[in-house]
């Protein structure tokens, strides 16, 4: 800032100030020129007459010029300045410049320049692009060479490491001929490969890695081939051991196949034929149906015992047995065996039991009851066993029709089964109907069979108007109704929530129509959308059952290796079935068994033996009783007495206490199921008290279901079964 007197001329003062500024500027550049030294920048020329600024600039390099002269990236240049390895000066024009003599000395001294680059830090990503090595190989190789990262950021796959370039260079390029930082940055910018810079060491490392990969691949391929050959040998051995289905030609056996829809009298006719023989079996899909036939035959004067997984009643002098299909003993088949609901031979979880009954029964007469879609498969099975078949067709005794218009809840007529597919919906609909003043019974799968039977009997006798039920009414219950009404057509099948299949809907709908009491059976929905879908499914043809199911035999599982889970999975994958039976039978689904088998270690399997272990995982376990099953399995492994089931509730008054009562029954059923299995009988002293507990709880549950209570009300806490008590 300049000051001047008012008496002075402004123009003169300005000229003086300008001259003085130019003098100072020249002096500043002169000082820079003297600091720059005598050596000129490459390409610069001077005559000696130039002003100080021109002389100074000819002896200096700007940052950009320095970067080009040394072929250094800007980041390395900054590192160079940070290390103060080159003098620099801020010139009068505000630009930082470097002396030409220093630049040329550094350029002509590669070792010194290399020292600068060696201090630069590269990321693991840059090194991976340069070396084309995976990060884990890169880290391991540098670690083994004694090179550690200088820093890191992030974790796992997102972790970035920094390495000093000089350390990395010595590992991969010990003999020189390495890229410089500019080359590495160019590779990163273009996303290219550093293959052109690979040293002999890096090439050898890649060859070594590829050789290891090749050896691993070869070993893996050999192992796979060995496993394929081993599986083929195991499969061939299993097929060789597969029991023949062919009957002894000296033994005469005839299978009478009773085919028809629901309410066609096929089971009645088969039981009449059974009662004409001297001995035999009735095999049911459910213990409820087995008990119903047990009582029916005894009322007819045909002495019959009862055998289910959880209950045994030996009737003195009885030569007949009503049983669940899994309990059948083919070595004592008698004169006649009735196999009910035989189309379930294709059920992915339990179909194996029907297969076993059909091919191993030694009775001269088989009475096989099936829906029409099971006939084709059953005929093929008997063709492969060499058994003569006679097909007896049955027609519905009461016509079945679809309603013209839907009924909502307030307009349901008496003698109606209202169908839902969850326990919650059944109890909710029951409560809503009771609020409307209707009398209601309920049937759903979590209820004990005896409670379902009591509820069904109340409906059959006309004590209640409506029965709200799940698809548990599809089979196993004598539940005469005039109407079947669907509240929904979606169900959870244990894996997913899905739409009802035509076969499932037609099985349930077939309950409508009472022979001798109804002119017709009527099927309906609670709204137009459901009714339209019902009509469509009722007219839809049902595809034939695809294949019968087979369960693993003890001798098959003993051939395999590993714990029980591994053996069951391997068995399922092998699907060791003779060629002549392929397309007729296949392996059963093992999901439920595998879930329980996960609780058993290899040592547990060795201690139990395969036969006992398979028996243990076949127990009828539900989600609410799984913890109790684990306690029982622990007791079996320790060879101590089975733990007592949880105690009964003193009062059932709302939805939560009813659910807890169902959990108690589920645990009791496991206890009784294990108690009746020969390998575990010595671990039970007396089942009678448990039977009495079960009977008392069943009575209480039946009475509770007749009361009006809000299913959502709860005065107890929720949790696992052993938290309830």
Explain the overall architecture.
This protein has 725 residues and is an alpha/beta fold. The protein folds into 5 domains: 16-116, Multidrug-efflux Transporter Regulator, Chain: A, Domain 2 (Orthogonal Bundle), CATH 1.10.1660; 120-241, no CATH class; 254-393, 3-Layer(aba) Sandwich (Rossmann fold), CATH 3.40.50.300; 400-538, 3-Layer(aba) Sandwich (Rossmann fold), CATH 3.40.50; 551-724, no CATH class. Strand 9 (304-307) and strand 10 (312-313) form a beta hairpin. The longest helix has 42 residues, at 200-241. The radius of gyration is 44 Å and the shape is elongated. The N and C termini lie far apart (96 Å). Residues 715-725 have low confidence and may be disordered.
Described by its quaternary structure, the protein is single chain
Report the helical percentage. Answer: 40-55%
Overall residue-averaged pLDDT value: 86
In spatial order, strands of the major sheet run 10-9-11-8-12-13-7-14
The radius of gyration is 44 Å
Whole-number count of domains: 5
Q: Kindly state the number of beta strands.
A: 24
Biggest pleated-sheet summary: 8 strands, mixed
Number of helices: 28
Distance between the termini: 96 Å
Unreliable residue stretches:
715-725
| Beta-strand share of residues | 5-15%
**Class by SSE composition:** alpha/beta
Q: Rough shape?
A: elongated
